[in-house]
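Our consortium's second objective concerns turning raw sequence data into structural hypotheses that experimental partners can test. To show how far this objective has progressed, the report includes one record in full. It was chosen at random from the queue rather than selected for favorable results. The single chain below, 182 residues long, was entered without modification.
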Amino acid sequence: MTARALVSLTCQARGGRPYGIALRRDAVRLLRLLDLGHCELSLLLTDDRAIRELNRTFRGKDRATDVLSFPQFESPPAVPQPLRPDGVPVPLGDIVISLDTAVRQADSMGLPLTLRLRMLLIHGLLHLLGYDHERGATEARRMFARERELLAALADADRRGARRKPRARAVRATAADTDAHR
């Protein structure tokens, strides 16, 4: 039984709706690229005030941040299990992105805002899959390498889409991706 990736979007950020729609599309594509089309993901595009409150409440850090991830499970499985027999998608968790912070970062990095948001989405998704750059330099290198790989895969999919030539290229989640991240 196959399922369509389920990605819900809530956009609280003023002027963020078009960016949220693009984020949702990217999230669906990422889940498919990672062979996680049987999973469910929740996205929240918000502002600095709201993400600061979440950061204070859940991480004890009284400041705004760019992205927060809230995994559904405390120890994510190496690769989320296939679609449940009852047909219900496997929940991965929630990703919260501050549009305010993303705008500032995109400007200071000289990047289009859509690219910075895509980068933050990938970063948040990898946290849901068990990656954690705060565990040390080796872990950070592994996570950031995976981010670059997924960013390139999405860019490649964008180019193929512009040419309208379908071509399968999977960048699947593997047990090796997340085993070391526990």
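The partners drew two points from this record. The chain has a mean pLDDT of 84. The longest strand covers residues 90-98. Both points have been shared with the crystallography group to help prioritize constructs.
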